[in-house]
């Protein structure tokens, strides 16, 4: 399940999360973001209990995107213990995304 974040929940559900969290920074007008959404949703079902999945609209919450150093979208940032562990920028098909997530999780 992918959770929609806002300014309040970003702090509690991402930065203070016990599990690592992957956040999809996206916008309505972004074509690659629209392609990434169903892939992100599908992959989220396979990491239950290992990794939380969340989305943040960069148009509505630009200050959080800026604080996170997001300059291009879609941008997936994995946060672990309140810090950025890694990031994935741009669209990626499901097998590549899973491989990248697995590599990042092994390092945590």
From TrEMBL:
<dbReference type="GO" id="GO:0005737">
    <property type="term" value="C:cytoplasm"/>
</dbReference>
<dbReference type="Pfam" id="PF00085">
    <property type="entry name" value="Thioredoxin"/>
</dbReference>
<keyword id="KW-0813">Transport</keyword>
<dbReference type="GO" id="GO:0015035">
    <property type="term" value="F:protein-disulfide reductase activity"/>
</dbReference>
<feature type="active site" description="Nucleophile">
    <location>
        <position position="30"/>
    </location>
</feature>
<feature type="active site" description="Nucleophile">
    <location>
        <position position="33"/>
    </location>
</feature>
<feature type="disulfide bond" description="Redox-active">
    <location>
        <begin position="30"/>
        <end position="33"/>
    </location>
</feature>
<feature type="domain" description="Thioredoxin">
    <location>
        <begin position="1"/>
        <end position="106"/>
    </location>
</feature>
<keyword id="KW-0676">Redox-active center</keyword>
<keyword id="KW-1015">Disulfide bond</keyword>
<keyword id="KW-0249">Electron transport</keyword>
<feature type="site" description="Contributes to redox potential value">
    <location>
        <position position="32"/>
    </location>
</feature>
<comment type="similarity">
    <text>Belongs to the thioredoxin family.</text>
</comment>
<dbReference type="InterPro" id="IPR013766">
    <property type="entry name" value="Thioredoxin_domain"/>
</dbReference>
<dbReference type="InterPro" id="IPR036249">
    <property type="entry name" value="Thioredoxin-like_sf"/>
</dbReference>
<dbReference type="InterPro" id="IPR005746">
    <property type="entry name" value="Thioredoxin"/>
</dbReference>
<protein>
    <recommendedName>
        <fullName>Thioredoxin</fullName>
    </recommendedName>
</protein>
<feature type="site" description="Deprotonates C-terminal active site Cys">
    <location>
        <position position="24"/>
    </location>
</feature>
<dbReference type="InterPro" id="IPR017937">
    <property type="entry name" value="Thioredoxin_CS"/>
</dbReference>
<feature type="site" description="Contributes to redox potential value">
    <location>
        <position position="31"/>
    </location>
</feature>
